[in-house]
Amino acid sequence: MNKFYGTGVAMVTPFGAGGEVDYPALEKLINHLLDGGVEYLVSLGTTGESATLNKDEKKKVWEFTAKVTNGRAPLIAGIGGNDTREVVEAVKSFDVAGYDAILSASPYYNKPNQRGIYEHYKAIAETSALPVILYNVPGRTGSNVSAETTCKLATDFKNIIGIKEASGNFDQFNQIMRDKPEGFLFISGDDPVTLPMMALGAVGVISVVGNAFPRQFSDMVRLCLQGKFAEAQKGHLDLIEVTRLFFADGSPAGVKAALKELGVCGDAVRLPLVNVNDAIAEKIIAETKRITSL
């Protein structure tokens, strides 16, 4: 299978009490995920609070992640932004050692039209030494990468190899699956609809929930890849409530509350994010205990 079939995890970035990157906890997280059987890792995607890390911190996190992973799984680096020139420079200067692809979120806030989105990704594709995975998440960016734009980019640039789709729009999913080039990877970017997306033809997920429950989530996804959707349904339903809770009061604060309960890393986030409220935290802890006891 393609190295990006199955479960990828958009890793959180653990922070210490003073807001510094907690590298021992990051190492523990990486091992937790790989021991949990996930297929690949995403370093400094948006779940990694990449918007709040400076260039030096990003460089160090990427290098550390590659060193700890040590070839045990494919690695993807999250490199995106809303200034195309700045993103291109970041891609150009990125040390590709240990990495297999770049995941780049569509520009946020600017609300570019489809021509602007196409030109943005064209500039990245023409610069990148690594394959590029598009990331469509309109709920955060304020604009949608249409099915037509996705398929045109996939057709025009052979190093644009897939899309992480988090629009929640199944009409759009249908169009992408119908019109995309053969081999172009359709990847779920939305944990609670991963199973139905895979029934449609998605090859897996880049997950937030997988940070806390890598074994449970990746087992479910592998059953889907085998076409065993009836068997996968139990795992899907077991995780529905905790998935809802992880996003109820801000992400990645929700999943970090579970990771703290599991002893993997602390729950610190960087402003403007804050920890989940006490009521949500209590429910997350209870669900975490329930799931780990299954």
UniProtKB/TrEMBL annotation:
- The answer to whether the entry has keyword Transcription is no
Show the Pfam families listed in the entry. Answer: DHDPS
GO CC term, one of those recorded: cytosol
Keyword tags: Amino-acid biosynthesis, Cytoplasm, Diaminopimelate biosynthesis, Lyase, Lysine biosynthesis, Schiff base
Question: Which reaction is this enzyme known to catalyze?
Answer: L-aspartate 4-semialdehyde + pyruvate = (2S,4S)-4-hydroxy-2,3,4,5-tetrahydrodipicolinate + H2O + H(+)
InterPro entries with a match to the protein in the record? Aldolase_TIM, DapA, DapA-like, Schiff_base-form_aldolases_AS
What EC number(s) are associated with this protein in UniProt? 4.3.3.7
What are the TM regions of this chain, as residue ranges? Answer: none
Q: Which PROSITE patterns match?
A: DHDPS_2 (PS00666)
Feature type site, description Part of a proton relay during catalysis? 46, 109
**Subcellular location as annotated:** Cytoplasm
Binding annotation for pyruvate: 47, 206
What are the protein's GO molecular function terms?
Answer: 4-hydroxy-tetrahydrodipicolinate synthase activity
Query: Where are the active-site residues found?
Result: 135 (proton donor/acceptor), 164 (schiff-base intermediate with substrate)
Its main subcellular localisation, reduced to a broad class, is: cytoplasm
Q: In what pathway does it function?
A: Amino-acid biosynthesis; L-lysine biosynthesis via DAP pathway; (S)-tetrahydrodipicolinate from L-aspartate: step 3/4
Site, L-lysine inhibitor binding: residue positions:
51, 82, 86, 108
Q: Name one GO biological process term.
A: lysine biosynthetic process via diaminopimelate
Q: Record's family?
A: Belongs to the DapA family.
What the protein does comes down to: Catalyzes the condensation of (S)-aspartate-beta-semialdehyde [(S)-ASA] and pyruvate to 4-hydroxy-tetrahydrodipicolinate (HTPA).
| Subunit note | Homotetramer; dimer of dimers.
Q: What is this protein called?
A: 4-hydroxy-tetrahydrodipicolinate synthase
Question: Origin organism of this chain?
Answer: Mucilaginibacter straminoryzae
